[in-house]
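Protein entry
_____________
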Amino acid sequence: MFFSKLFIPTLREISSDVDAISAKLMIKSGMVRKLSSGFYEFLPLGFKVLKKIENIVRQEMNAIGGQEVVLPLILPKDLWMETGRWNIYGKELFRLKDRKEVEYCLTPTSEECITELIRKNIKSYKQLPLMLYQFGIKFRDEIRPRFGLMRAKEFLMKDAYSFHVDEIDLEKYYKIMFSAYTNVFLKCGFKFRTVEAVSDEIGGLFSHEFIAMADIGEEEIVWCNCGYGANVEKAECLKVEQTNDKLFTMEEIVTPNVGTVLDVTKFLNVPLKKIIKTIIYVYDGNPVAVLVRGDHEINEIKLKDLLKANEIFLASEQTVVSITNIPVGFLGPVGLKNIKIVADISVIEIPNALVGANKENYHIKNVNYKRDYSANVVGDIRKVVHGDICSKCKIEKLMFSKGIEIGHIFKLGTKYSKLMNAIYFDTNGKVNFITMGCYGIGITRIFSAIIEQSHDNNGIIWPDSIAPFEVIIIPINYKNNKIKKITENIYIKLFSKGLDILIDDRDERVGVKFKDADLIGIPYRITVGEKSLINGNVGLKIRRNSEGKEIFLKPESVVDEILRMFIK
């Protein structure tokens, strides 16, 4: 393949509003172009990268018995009404109507579609287990698309679904898929971690995220050397050990115009961890008073799960007053009536706590659980914080890292099969709901995440397995017959072994060619020039060794050296 014949519109300068290094380098290297906010065009080089990522994923999916399908991009409203997700998915769902005013959505995920396919075609245990997967465009109406391909409105994803007779069979396959995903990300050259995760709008019993480590990542995870890992929404918090402090008598104290936790701690010189915050939420139309320590924050996902709620949100100040008839900032659990109380596990162990007195400008000190107040529900509902001890080993402090979610696997159980009546008959002729698993990989996210992890000041550094071309040959003067002959001879030998080779035949200065080769990120650069050929040599530069020097070898030795890298 000749550089002069390819559409590779590299740029030296791009718009200042591009907010991620991966997006900058994809645009500068001529791999993608931004059409509008959240929508990108893939040019030939970028498309080659996507296809190589796809093929790595496809090989692993096929290796564990997956069968590839293609599902529609536009899905009927009726299917989403069956699962209830039409109304609860949120504003990220693109909705549209056809000329007959029939409603549809652009697919953000395919649980309804695949379950519809299965319920029409699977009837017997003999047809299970089964795994189907696809590569398809997904759509989400992001309120603020950012970070290039990582948070776009349109993106390419591999989604897979497995179908089983029971949870035991699902568990076996979940472990197989876990290993396959690990293989995918190792082959892609990632530095990544696998963590327990919240299942979000997909739902289900349990899930894991695969996180590519990157400072720009929107996903925050915690992990421990013992092997535990979770995203911050899922991370478990240990129960605080009960102390033997002497319990004092409750005492009401005046706190004029002191309505925030920080104001209280300053005014009374009380540490935040001795204060109990009382915060009003509304879940599924019902108010609830939530208690959390002064130095902690409520994890709304944990709270939602604990209450088994479909929807939960923080009550407005007006709503708080109308529900409790108490000014915001002075709420407390003592004597709080006609409202459900949920307490974090750390709250009930605070001896002699400080709380709001349920009247303006007053607080109560020396408040103790059970003696002075109680809760209807107690559980882990707070966000993990720096300094927390690992909930698994109970010894080491958790470590925090940022990353990019590149894969997510779920144990769906029978959530969708029950809602959509996807059944099978077992060996005894009894009707059972099909048990499901769901497994997603963001193909375009992998594209971005690799660049975020692997680049330098000169451009992208692609892993060998994903690079648009494995080798670029740069003849200093392609019109020179000797240089041209050696260049083409190297090309033929490497191409015959299945490698993607690019010859930079442009009539450009060698410095420009070198800069473009580094920008595009091609792993191996062979330079054929008159000076080195005096000694019968050509130059070889390995892109990932950015500080390494160019080495000079005989043309046949260069071929052998590169083949050694690829042919194991």
The two ends are 25 Å apart (CA to CA). Residues 167-187 form the longest helix (21 residues). The longest strand covers residues 399-413.
